[in-house]
Each structure stands twice: as structure tokens, then as C-alpha cells.
Specification:
Elements: H1 4-23, H2 32-41, H3 51-56, H4 63-72, H5 83-118, E1 130-136, E2 144-156, E3 160-164, E4 170-174, E5 178-180, E6 191-192, E7 203-205, E8 208-210, H6 213-226
Antiparallel strand pairs: 1-2, 1-5, 2-3, 2-6, 3-4, 7-8
Length: about 230
């Protein structure tokens, strides 16, 4: 099971590296440190803090801040606290910052869930029904394919179903990832393009959101058997 947040960050790093290599083919490695600094100093839109601030309890003193201090002749205040008081203040600030960030993330997550569930298609399955699951292609993760059939063994709430896979494992999926299998013995080779995935990319498994890597491996093995 993949972590969607981590995968998006990895995608950003890969995209930036590709651009660096293209523009600076001989010196791209010199930009790795500035790249990582930019990522750590970027404000997260979900909670309003930078990764650096959450870890160290203060903002970075980066190049732009140093230039501003030079131009405005701003003097850096000397910290007159002793080590013990500094550690107490730092601990309290980090704790408060992380608490606020967590509250903001939970609030944004509820908004995302509400938006996602609003796009859920009006359909339902019964226990014992056979369904197909929408999964990404190995050759292009921006395309998806229906894999199955698998048996529905339980329903969780209104929009989630527990599905039993061929190897006996049980996974939980959002209704947007499922469709009823009309003919269990025929393979559905329909490929869904990326612009049609707005409401179906998320896989829900034990409370986590992301792409189900184990199901992807199962799909890839079935592809090899087919060809």
C-alpha cells in the first residue's frame, strides 16, 4: 500500500531532477542541495508550515532573509536565554506547531473526503457479488484497467467494500474503484485514460489512501499470463 503524500513528493522531486538534468546536463548535481532546501522551506498548503519549521520550531534563515537583513541593515537579536530555558521554549513551540498542523491537516482531509464522496457514483453491491477493481497499468500509471473478478464479502459504511482477492487476501476499496462484473469469464480490456480518473484514483485500505502496490503486482502477473 503506497502513501499518497510521499508519492506526490517523490513525483515532484523526480520532475524537478528531470528539468535540472535537461537544462544543466553537466552540472545538475550542484543544484541538489538548493533543491532540497526549497522543498524543506516551502509552505505546505495543507497546514501552513514548512517542513523545517515543524522539525526545528523556527523558520529558516535562508538567502532571501539574509539579503533582506543586509539591505535593511536589520540586526539579528541576540538570544540571552540560557540553554535550559531555550530547550523548554523550543519544545513548547514545536509541540504547538505540530498540534496546529495536525488540526489543519485533519480539517483539510475532511474537506477532501467530502469532495471525493460527492463524486461517488450512485451504485451499490451485495455480499456475494463479483466485481472488478480499477488499477493503474505498469507501463503508464496515468492509465487504469479493470482487474478481476473478485468477490464482495462485506460492506463498510455507505461507500466502502471489502473484497476477497484470488490469493485469499481481503482489501477495502471505495465504490468509485469498483464495478459489477457482468460476465465473470470474459476479460474486460477497457483502458481508462487519465482525464477520466478524477474520482477514481484513490484506493482505501485500512484507513490509508494511495495506490495499492500489491494489487498492482497481481495485475502485472496476470498480464504476463495473458500474453
Amino acid at each position: 500500500m503506497g502513501n499518497g503524500v510521499v508519492e506526490r513528493l517523490n513525483g515532484t522531486i523526480k520532475m524537478t531532477l528531470r528539468k535540472l538534468i535537461k537544462e544543466q546536463p553537466k552540472e545538475w548535481d550542484r543544484f541538489l542541495v538548493p533543491l532540497l532546501f526549497a522543498l524543506r522551506d516551502g509552505v505546505h498548503e495543507g497546514h501552513g508550515f514548512t517542513p523545517f519549521e515543524l522539525v526545528y520550531g523556527r523558520t529558516t534563515r535562508g538567502p532571501m532573509r539574509i539579503l533582506r537583513e543586509l539591505w535593511t541593515k536589520e540586526e539579528v537579536e541576540e538570544d540571552i536565554r540560557n540553554e535550559y530555558q531555550y530547550m523548554l521554549d523550543l519544545q513548547e513551540k514545536i509541540s504547538d506547531t505540530c498540534r496546529i498542523a495536525q488540526e489543519e491537516l485533519e480539517k483539510n482531509q475532511r474537506k477532501s473526503d467530502k469532495y471525493y464522496n460527492r463524486k461517488a457514483r450512485l451504485r451499490k453491491f451485495d455480499i456475494g457479488d463479483f466485481v472488478k477493481v480499477l488499477l493503474p497499468l505498469k507501463t503508464n500509471k496515468m492509465q487504469m484497467k479493470w482487474l478481476g473478478p473478485f468477490e464482495v464479502i462485506d460492506k463498510i459504511g455507505v461507500l466502502d467494500y471489502r473484497v476477497k482477492l484470488d490469493d485469499g487476501r481481503i482489501k477495502t476499496y471505495h465504490v468509485n474503484m469498483l464495478k459489477k462484473d457482468v460476465n465473470r469469464h470474459s476479460e474486460d480490456a477497457a483502458v481508462v485514460e487519465n482525464h477520466e480518473l478524477a474520482a477514481v484514483i484513490t484506493v482505501v485500505n485500512d484507513g490509508e489512501i494511495g495506490v495499492d502496490e500489491e494489487m498492482l503486482e497481481l495485475f502485472n502477473s496476470k498480464q504476463k499470463e495473458t500474453y
